[in-house]
Hints:
By secondary structure, the protein is α+β, with helices and mostly antiparallel strands. Helix content is 29%, strand content 24%. It is built from 15 helices and 20 strands.
Amino acid sequence: MGTRVYVARLAGLPVFDPNGDRVGRVRDGVVRLRTTTRPPQVVGLVAEMALRRRIFLPIGRITSMDAENVVLSSGSLNLRRFEKRPNELLVIEDLLDRRVEVVPEHGEGAATPGVVVDIGMDLNRNNEWLVTRVAVREHTGRLTRRGHVFQAEYERVRGLVGPTDTQGTSNLLALLEQMRPADMANALQDLPDARRNEVAAALSDRTLADVLEELPEHDQVEILVRLDRERAADVLERMDPDDAADLLAELPKAEQTVLLDLMEPEEADPVRQLMNYRPGTAGSVMTSEPVILTPDTTVAEALARIREPELSPVVAAQVFVARAPSATPSGKYLGMVHFQRLLREAPSSILGGIVDNDIEPLRPDAPLAEIIKRMATYDLVAMPVIDSTRRLVGAVTVDDVLDHSLPRDWRERDNLGADETDEVTL
C-alpha cells in the first residue's frame, strides 16, 4: 500500500475480504477533526454493502488500497449502519466541491481561489493516515475556460473546514454519474436535505428521472416540488409513465393538473390513463410502453428493437404482437414472443408465425395477488394487459410487481440490511 492515497479516487472501488470475495464498494472517506493545529486524521472508509447498507471500515483493517480495489484483513466486521460523529467529516459528501483559498507557498501575494477536487492522505510513522494534500481546481471566473488543477499542502488551504454553503456540485456530480441510478439515489439520501436538493437539481433531466424512480416517495416529492414547474414537467416526461403516475399521485390534485398540462400531450396522455385505474390493479402498476410489433415484423427487426439501450431488461425480455397501431392502446392483441425464441429462429421469420398465445392476458382490473400467482405459475417476467376489445393497453413487469408488493417504505435506507448489532467474520 502506497504512502499517499487520494480519497475521492477510491469512490466506487470494490472492497474484498482476505479470501478475495467482494463485500461491497467504497462510497466515501471519514476524516476526524482535531482540536490541535495538526492536520485532520482519516480514520476509515464508508463502504456500501448488500441492500445499500453503508458501514464503517476502520483504516487499520485495510491492508491494501490502490487504483483497482480495497482489501480488508481478517477478523470481525461490524455491520452497524454508519453514522457520522460530530467531529467527523466525509470527504466526498462534505469536502468535495468546497470553495477554498490557497495562500502562496511563502506567504506572500494574494491567495488563489478554487474548489476542492480531492483530498490526499499520507501514512506517518505512527501508522496514522493524515490529510496532507488538497487537490484544487483554480477558479478563473471565466465561463469558457476551466482552471487548472494543482496540489497544495493542507496548511496552505483556507476554508476547507467551514460552513457547508461554500460547496458546489460539479465534482460530486462527476462521481455520482459513474453510478447506477439506484446507487446514485442511495448516495443522495445520505446528503443533507439542502445539499441533496441542490445536487439533484444539477442532474440532467434524464438522469434525475432515473434517480427519482429509485427514491422513496417522500424524497421524490421533496425534490420535484423544489424544481420550477417547467423543469419538473420535463423530468416527469422522461420517467416511465407508471413511475410518473405514482409520483404525481402523491401531489395535490391541483398540482397534478398543472404539471400534466405542462407536459407534452403524447407524454401526459398515458400518465393520465394510468392514474384512472384503481390502485392495486394491473392497470395501476403496468407500463404503457412495452415493445409492441406487428405480426409481419421479422425476427431480425425484433432483435434490433430489443437491443435499444433505453429499454430496461424486463421490457426487452419479450415483444408483444398486435395489429396496428403499435402504440397503446394497440390493435387486436395476438400474443407474445420471448427473446430466447427470437434467438432460436431464422432472422427472416416473421413474428406472426412464432407468436405464443397460450397464456390468457390480464385485465386492467386484475388484483395484484392474481398477477403474482399467474406470473409465478408461468415463470414470466412480464404479462400483457388487454381491454374489453382485446387491445393491448400495457404490460405488467416483474419489477412493477415487486415495487407494489413490498412495503411502501422498502426504499428507505433504515429498513434495509441486517440488524444493527450484527457482525460478520472475514
